[in-house]
Amino acid sequence: MTSLMASKAAAPVEQAAPPKKKTLARRLVPYGYLSPTAILIVVLMVVPIVMVISYSFRDNVIVQENPVFAGFANYTKVLTDPDFLIAIKNTAIFISVSMVAHLLLGLAFAMMLNTPLLGGVTKAVFRIVYILPWLFTIAVIAVIWRLLLDPSGVVNYVLHSLGLIQDGVNWLGDPGKALWVVTFINIWSGYPFFMISLLAGLQGIPGDLYEAAAVDGTNWLQRFRHVTLPQLRPVIISMAVLDLIWTSQQFALIWLTTGGGPLHATEMLSTYTYKQAFSEYEFSTASAAAVIVLLLTMVLAFFYVRQQRER
Amino acid sequence: MTMRASRLKRVIGAVTAAATVAFVAACGSGDSGDTASDGSVTLEFAQWWGAELPAGEFDKIVSDFTAQNPTIKIKLLSAPYDATKQQLVTGAASKTLPDVVGLDGAWVNDFAKQGAITDLSKLMTDANYDSGQLASQVQVDGKTYMIPVVNFVYPLFVNKDLLAKAGVAKVPTTRTEFLDAAKKISASGGDVKGWALPLDTAVPNGVQNDVMSWLWASGGSMLQDGKPNLQSAPVKSTVEYVKSLNDAGVIAPGSLTMKEQDKVEKFTNGQVGMMIDSLAHINLIKKNKPGLKFEVAALPAEDTYTGKRGIPYASWGIGISNSTKHKAEAFKFVSYLLGQETNAKLSTIANGFPGNKNAKPDFSGSDPMFKTAFDIYQQGYPANEFVGLAKSEDLMRSFDEQLQLVLTGKSSVDDALAKAQESWSSVID
What we know:
Chain A: It is found in: Cell membrane. Chain A: Pfam families: BPD_transp_1. Chain A has 2 domains: about 15-55; about 75-310, MetI-like (MetI-like fold). Chain A has 13 helices and no strands. Chain A has helices at about 1-15, 20-55, 75-80, 80-115, 120-135, 140-150, 155-160, 180-205, 205-215, 220-250, 250-255, 270-280, 285-310. Chain B has helices at about 1-30, 50, 55-70, 80-95, 105-115, 120-125, 160-165, 175-185, 205-215, 235-245, 260-270, 280-290, 325-335, 340-350, 370-380, 390-405, 415-425, and strands at about 35, 40-45, 70-80, 100-105, 140, 145-155, 155-160, 195, 225, 225-230, 270-275, 295, 310, 315-320, 355, 380. The longest helix of chain B is centred in the N-terminal third of the chain and has 27 residues, at about 1-30. Chain B contains 17 helices and 16 strands.
């Protein structure tokens, strides 16, 4: 034992003998392998984020050659702007309603596709039909829904023919309805991703858990509550947090349908920031708004990472 | 063997790292306007014109230039209007604009103040260019930064069938006649309305083309000595008139989020009887609805107005980047596009009016409506007060929001104009 220990201890002494230069080169090798990723992360993530943060503390960046340090002035300006506060409120409603609806619809459709009551072909057909909205790009979705929801469009025609409405409803142009309508469009376009993920989760639940529960005399609802939901919990939480983050960044759909209007009814943090930068050329306040959005998103990302670690 | 393999791995690692660094460095060092070894210069020209012209037509005009000037090559960066705008806004901010840029009058002030586009007055003097032949120039602080190459006017489009069906014999020429015609068209049944008003705030140019055009048609102005003057009687009467059209229920529903393309589509489909729109859309409308009977006319003015009528216009303007190393060559290209012959040719294929006063567009092969519009244009004067103003899109948007408050009954005309005036005053100093 002692001799074995001694020989083990001696080995590094023998290896340490080669010249120092070689050791340094060898030590650098792993960094060489890492460098492509590290450089890309620095160039594509760290540099832009640091630049935006530094812009947010200066005045008239980009449009003036020598912007001056402005402290928290841009943050004060953004946080006291009524339009920004409306944008926060709208974004909160938009992302939370979208997430809950995505979850409920996704779960309902996933359970329908997972049921043993339907045949394979029927399931395959429904799987294609349910996933369709997810296959369209946002630009196409926006154009389709703008046409459908036009005051003289298909939706009003159908509702009118069924006697549900008297006059044409102004879906996107009415400040009282616009937010709910864009939220609806977002729900329509986003539920299939939830459905697919939850379906994968459902298919991973061992059948013997249901059998054991059935032997215990449980009904369908009890099995759903005590077997399905607890088994899906990690998927549901991950998807919910990710959906909140993704939906908070939704820009194209809003921009192409309502542009944040009418009368700021659908103004989101993304459209507000865009207007500050590319319409008002206030890149400093746009950066401050972007940093605030980054901080809010980081809170969500924190919960996501913590939840992933628990798993 | 192991030694060789590990050395090989190390070499591969180092090469990958070096290649990445080189790639990243190459990404950051993009420079427009290069001089080749044979002494020829390549100029980049970013614009949206190529995307709006019949395929290949603009390339032909450019290749004629390169044939005459073998030492200058032109690389066209053609993209749709919105994409070009975004590219130029970011390019101006980072001082990496292409050598020659297509400009909209609404962007000029901001780009000039950022020092992104160059003073063309100086280049014209250096090149002994006769600026007297130019129909117009867009200036900031007395210096020219943009020259309109082709102008597109926005006359009144009237659906003749709908007008006849509503019992209106004559195309309206005054505000009262227009309101009356719009009411009759709206009462003629179905989903048809008299007029379309696109007020979407994402691209708020409806304020310029569909609202302020009423003011300019009656000789009014929204500015006084370069300062906003929105509480004046002519502006108030314009907004009150638009409100009266709204109150009469003659505006197509959904106007608060309606976009320009929706307006054109509704007119093409016979859902609205009248609209104010770019002449450039005549071909599009005819292509989509060959049987539609429509004509263009001057914008209606106030009933008592007898003076010249301002007619809104948009331009394909041109400017030169301040950071290009080849300003003289760039100006040579600009003066080629504005030359009498080339400009006439470009205006003809674009269905627009030339930026060179002496250029005569050839209407023989085009729709007779272009000739009518050219007459309207020559009888009146081109009017677009947003051209050259700072943050003009922002000005349109703030006015748009106030107008939306008026149309939804949430604000009085006086309050809205007072708020818009306050908002504009903080932008235009």
